[in-house]
């Protein structure tokens, strides 16, 4: 564990708390892509079921339980409690374009050709693109509530912080995880446009609006 | 351990 990874994980944790806060206080999931949230459930379940056979630390296990539990809870809120505020007609990204390529990539790139390792690779690839339906929705509507952008920023910062973590680990432990690093760089790259608008507009007190 | 398949990251 190093500082970059810890701050990254805390940022990830914060992003979910911000999202829950947004949904609970506005009693609405407007502006949130159900598809992205469903993909995160798939990511966490595929990757964190190793809870049952791999013990790393109490921290690690507690975070895994939290991420699986909170992502399922968010789906429940969107699908049942605040269903009327969820508008599927603007959440139109075709997720099979993500699921199928990720499944194929995980069969080719994995550290061991066995179900658990293939699932791990699949979750890494899927996580890297899971935000696309959300970004696509943002692009379509052209604007977002400030709190939604804080959620996305925290999520992006989490991934960005994993990059210095890998560099640090490479020099201190000599470890390199090519699958996680490649997917992680792609994932962070997807946020660059968003970050630009977030830092130049939202953090200056302006509304998040994309140029027409 | 220090191999990629240790998967100690979240």
UniProtKB/TrEMBL annotation, chain A:
InterPro entries xref list: ER_ret_rcpt
One GO CC annotation: endoplasmic reticulum membrane
GO molecular function: ER retention sequence binding
Annotated localization: Endoplasmic reticulum membrane
Cleavable signal peptide: none
Broad class of the protein's primary localization: endoplasmic reticulum
Record's keyword terms, sorted: Endoplasmic reticulum, ER-Golgi transport, Membrane, Protein transport, Receptor, Transmembrane, Transmembrane helix, Transport
KW Transmembrane (keyword) present: yes
One BP term from GO: protein retention in ER lumen
One Pfam family this sequence matches: ER_lumen_recept
Highest taxon of the lineage: Eukaryota
TM helices/strands, residue ranges: 52-76, 97-113, 119-138, 150-167, 179-199
Membrane topology, as annotated: Multi-pass membrane protein
Similarity-based family: Belongs to the ERD2 family.
Protein name listed in UniProt: ER lumen protein-retaining receptor
Organism: Pleurotus ostreatus
Gene: ERD2
């Amino acid at each position: 564990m190093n500082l970059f990874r810890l701050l990254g994980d805390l940022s990830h944790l914060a992003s979910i708390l911000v999202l829950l806060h947004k949904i609970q206080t506005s009693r609405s999931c407007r502006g949130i892509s159900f598809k992205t949230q469903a993909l995160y459930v798939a990511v966490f379940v595929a990757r964190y079921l190793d809870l049952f056979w791999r013990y790393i630390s109490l921290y690690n296990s507690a975070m895994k339980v939290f991420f699986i539990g909170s992502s399922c809870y968010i789906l429940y809120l969107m699908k049942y409690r605040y269903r009327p505020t969820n508008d599927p007609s603007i959440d139109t990204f075709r997720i099979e374009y993500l699921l199928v390529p990720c499944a194929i990539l995980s069969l080719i790139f994995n550290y061991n050709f066995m179900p658990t390792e293939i699932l791990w690779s699949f979750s890494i690839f899927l996580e890297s693109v899971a935000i696309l339906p959300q970004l696509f929705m943002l692009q379509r509507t052209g604007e977002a509530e400030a709190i939604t952008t804080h959620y996305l920023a925290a999520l992006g910062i989490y991934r960005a912080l994993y990059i210095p973590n890998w560099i640090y680990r490479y020099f201190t432990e000599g470890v390199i995880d090519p699958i996680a690093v490649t997917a992680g760089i792609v994932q962070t790259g997807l946020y660059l446009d968003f970050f630009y608008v977030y830092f130049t507009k939202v953090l200056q007190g302006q509304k998040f609006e994309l140029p027409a | 351990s220090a191999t990629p398949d240790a998967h100690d990251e979240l």
